[in-house]
Specification:
It contains 7 helices and 5 strands. The protein is an alpha/beta fold and 177 residues long.
Length: 177
């Protein structure tokens, strides 16, 4: 069992990736890593991320850093769980720059919908923090859900009606709806 991951260790991970990146690379943070960097939580169990473009050198280094920094790293992002939202790259804010690596939060709307679908208490707490901080507007999140709803058949684990109900429950009472 590895120690919880705090903001300093996420920054150390970014710094090390920036040292070895041979080309301009974007590291998209998602889940608990976003929550920790934004200050909604003190720590997370693992660092969920996505690399663009794929890089064998960085994937190899990730395996080493997992041991060196004593942290769990998962290659995961919202489109692994819900359909890709239109315009997600443009809505992914940069949070760190290290060498040739730019670290961005994966689009907060994508993260919010993915977290709502999963429905864990920590996920819903994170969504509430996104709304409270103004990073996610409930009406826009619902509009984006409407845009991806026709593609939910590509995610057989998701029941579209249940997902819609979760979205309405999580965002329906929030300010700005």
């Amino acid at each position: 069992m590895r120690a919880p991951v705090d903001a300093a260790r996420i920054r150390a991970l970014a710094r090390e990736l920036g040292r070895v990146a041979l080309e301009d690379t974007v590291v998209y943070l998602t889940g608990g890593a976003t929550a920790v960097i934004e200050g909604w939580r003190q720590s997370t169990v693992d660092v969920d991320l996505r690399l663009e473009p794929d890089s064998d050198a960085l994937f190899r280094r990730l395996s080493e850093l997992k041991e060196e920094l004593d942290l769990n790293i998962e290659l995961a992002s919202p489109p692994d769980f819900v359909p890709e939202l239109p315009g997600w790259r443009e809505r992914s804010p940069a949070v760190l720059h290290e060498g040739r690596v730019t670290v961005r939060h994966f689009d907060l709307y994508s993260q919010a919908l993915s977290k709502i679908e999963r429905g864990f208490v920590t996920d819903l707490t994170d969504v509430a923090a996104m709304v409270r901080s103004g990073l996610v507007e409930p009406k826009r999140a619902k509009d984006l859900f409407d845009q991806i709803e026709p593609s939910l058949h590509r995610y057989p684990a998701i029941d579209p009606a249940s997902f819609r109900a979760k979205v309405e429950r999580a965002l329906g009472q929030a300010p700005g709806t």
